[in-house]
Write a structure and sequence with these properties.
heterotrimer; A alpha/beta (about 400); B alpha+beta (about 230); C mainly alpha (about 80); A: about 400 residues; alpha/beta; Peroxisomal Thiolase, Chain A, domain 1; 2 domains; eleven-stranded mixed β-sheet; B: about 230 residues; alpha+beta; eight-stranded mixed β-sheet
Chain lengths: ~400, ~230, ~80
């Protein structure tokens, strides 16, 4: 058998990262906003997005254009900025920032490129873009090709589109391909938009909260949509000059095999993924410092997640969902929230789960109610999505 | 065709897995394990092909009618694969599903967009919207066959045997699966093309469908199944 | 009422893609959810869309759906009462 033992697997280090959300255009900006309890979810009254006002966390359009123009100047690319879609700009600004100061070259054949997105440039279906961009741009591989070309990646991207676990799956894919020796470095990025398309769909599901979402709270009434992009740069070699090095040490997915839109009633399947990830990382429940949960704030998701956490023996572990700050960013969520979890590990801070006041899940979870200092040696990040999919990944300090 | 990526070198020639059953659906014809089981010259509508095959194969699963076309296509192909080679003796968590296509769920995205593009008749439909993710077909397959293992949906411009092989090979190498359904399920308008293959560890006692010589699981054979007439 | 019931049966079959079911198979007094037609949570949301689209009736609280969508007859009664 070709099974690689833990010793044979190459270590996979996180060298640098970026987050773009309504709260800012870098990891530092986003984390600082969270430390100051800034909530990025606001009521938006834009008839192009929704017939009625809707609560979303939207990336500032003007600032995005400014950042994108700066990137074009820096890389000396003489291309019209308006020839890129909103999501492409986000991806490019995010990847550019994450690659800053890194020795990783996209053109190297041993650099892997992974993209996660659920809907890509789906906004191009809207009437206002019909005459501006070609229909081809709706294909996720075309979106991937544009980003690949911009940075000159020698490898076409592996494109993951697996509902709301896409971001975690993208990280898992890079972890496996680097771990098995197929590549030396990876750029992993995830992005999605809060478009008219997804807003209308979640409205038809009656799944949107009239106020900023309240994960794990008794008064939670649904999710808040968000948009953004998260990027990580990975390598099989640590950053020698960094004080703290963080590695990916385990990851798995599972499927509920229960319902295409309703989560498992038992949490058993998410727990399977969690247990497998912990097994790969060689960690017991006592060694997990923090759970960065999916926490969408829909009644059933949070309930299922709490059961899965209990089944995995982790109810004592401090847990939060960051969706109360920047909403549910869909295919970007796993990336953005992983970057934030890694920032928390580096800073040894556990962030308050915004929107949480009164426990509201069947299992008494240790939901973080105030920002506080703590030794964060390891983090479990989970995600679940439509199609019954679940994912878990583990980050650990060296 | 987008050039294949993935491990710039492949660690080993994997001799441990075999394709024990496969199904391919395209051009009004259905092939299961090298046998043509359905062909209709005159069908012009893809939806009719799906329904005819469903009825011919005497499948009873009322939820089939509620699925979008990509889910129907992937569901039917998997149904036919597993009719010939029953999934037996596996833990639900040891069976994986890895599917891919070119246009994601664009076919159903367009249907959802039709329900919202006109503000005077803005009626987004939850039963359409729920299918606007490519991995829903995986969910449908998992529900039907009680599969709970690794699952992912990958996108590439055209069928990419190398990409598919590398992902699935990694799952076997890391012992994440003992069996895995993998393939290509593409639908856009009236254009469709599907291939689903069952890959299993090569165990001595394993039975294979009558008259079908199992194929080694490798890139060449995946490409062969995709192109075989 | 009987006319509306027959019309509703056809609309429900179409809206919920119950291709294998004929209007005559549906007893207007039998429960729509649970065993009967095998409907699920997405179907319940879809019925809310049906009422709004075909009859201009908006159900603000999905929880009310349970009573309204008990059977074809309760749906017909609700429509008769609330139709604008």
């Amino acid at each position: 058998m070709g099974h690689l033992t833990a010793e044979e697997m190459k270590p996979v280090y996180i060298l640098n990262d970026n987050i773009i959300t309504s709260l800012g255009f870098s990891t530092a900006e986003n984390i600082s906003a969270i430390e100051h309890d800034t909530i990025g979810i606001r009521s938006v009254n834009d008839p192009l997005l929704s017939p009625n006002p809707v609560m979303i966390s939207a990336v500032n359009q003007d600032e995005l254009n400014t950042k994108f123009a700066e990137v074009l100047l820096t890389v000396k690319k003489n291309v019209p900025p308006e020839s890129f879609t909103r999501l492409e700009k986000m991806f490019i600004v995010s990847i550019h920032d994450a690659l800053k100061g890194q020795e990783i070259t996209p053109g190297n054949a041993r650099t892997l490129f992974v993209i996660s997105t659920t809907k890509g440039n789906v906004d191009l279906l809207e009437n206002r873009y019909q005459a501006v961009f070609s229909h081809k741009r709706l294909y996720l591989w075309e979106l991937g090709r544009i980003i690949q070309q911009f940075f000159g990646f020698s490898n076409p991207p592996v494109i993951i589109s697996n509902a709301c676990i896409s971001g975690v799956v993208a990280m898992m894919t890079a972890y496996r391909y680097l771990g098995s020796g197929g590549y030396d470095h990876a750029v992993v990025t995830g992005g999605d938009l809060a478009s008219e398309f997804v807003i209308s769909g979640f409205q038809s599901f009656q799944a949107l909260s009239p106020a900023p979402c309240k994960p794990f709270d008794i008064n939670r009434t649904g999710l808040s949509l968000g948009e953004g992009c998260g990027t990580m740069v990975l390598s099989v070699k640590p950053n020698e000059s960094a004080g703290i090095n963080i590695r990916v040490t385990g990851a798995a997915t599972s499927n509920d095999a229960n319902h295409i839109s309703g989560p498992s009633r038992t949490g058993e399947e998410l727990s399977m993924a969690i247990s497998e990830a912990m097994k790969q990382a060689d960690l017991t429940p006592a060694n997990i410092s923090y759970i960065a949960a999916h926490g969408t704030a829909t009644p059933f998701n949070d309930e299922m997640e709490s059961k899965a956490i209990e089944l995995s023996g982790l109810i004592h572990v401090p847990v939060n969902s960051l969706k109360g700050y920047w909403g549910h960013t869909l295919g970007a969520a796993g990336m953005i929230e992983s970057v934030a979890a890694i920032a928390a590990m580096k800073k040894n801070i556990l962030f308050r789960s915004a929107g949480f006041e009164t426990p509201g899940v069947p299992v008494p979870l240790n939901v973080i109610s105030e920002h506080h200092a703590a030794e964060v040696k390891s983090c479990l990040k989970t995600a679940s999505g439509f199609g019954g999919c679940n994912a878990a990944i583990i980050y650990q300090k060296d | 065709m987008a050039d294949a990526m993935l491990p710039s070198y492949i660690r080993k020639i994997n001799m441990d897995q075999i394709i024990t059953s496969y199904c391919r659906i395209r051009d009004n014809e259905v092939i299961v394990n090298d046998r043509l089981i359905f062909y209709q010259e005159n069908i012009v509508k893809f939806a009719e092909v799906l329904k005819s095959v469903y009825i011919q194969e005497q499948i009873i699963y009322p939820k089939f009618y509620k699925m979008d076309t990509i889910s129907k296509l992937g569901f039917l192909a998997t149904e036919l694969v597993l009719k010939e080679k029953v999934l037996e003796g596996y833990r639900p968590g040891a069976v994986g599903v890895v599917l891919s296509n070119s246009s994601s769920s664009l076919d159903t995205d367009i249907a959802h967009n039709e329900t919202i593009k006109d503000r005077s008749s803005y009626f987004p439909s939850p039963s359409v919207f729920v299918y606007t993710l490519p991995n829903i077909v995986i969910g449908e397959i998992c529900i039907r066959h009680k599969i709970k293992g690794e699952n992912v949906f990958l996108i590439s411009e055209a069928f990419n045997g190398k990409m598919l092989f590398c992902y699935v090979d990694e799952l076997f190498t890391n012992e994440r699966v003992d069996a895995c359904l993998c393939g290509w399920v593409e639908v856009l308008g009236n254009k469709y093309n599907a291939m689903v293959a069952l890959v299993e560890n090569n165990r001595p006692m394993q039975g294979t469908p009558a008259g079908f010589k199992p194929l080694l699981f490798n890139i060449e054979n995946l490409n062969l199944i995709m192109t075989r007439n | 009422m009987e006319e509306l019931i027959e019309k509703l049966k056809k609309e429900v079959i179409e809206q919920l893609n119950l291709e294998d079911i004929n209007p005559d198979d549906i007893n207007p007094d039998s429960p729509l959810f649970g065993e009967g037609l095998g409907l699920d949570s997405i179907d319940a949301l879809e019925l809310i869309v049906l009422l709004e689209k075909n009859y201009g009736i908006k159900i603000e609280d999905p929880k009310d759906g349970k009573k309204i969508f008990h059977s074809i007859r309760t749906m017909a009664e609700y429509i008769t009462e609330h139709k604008k």
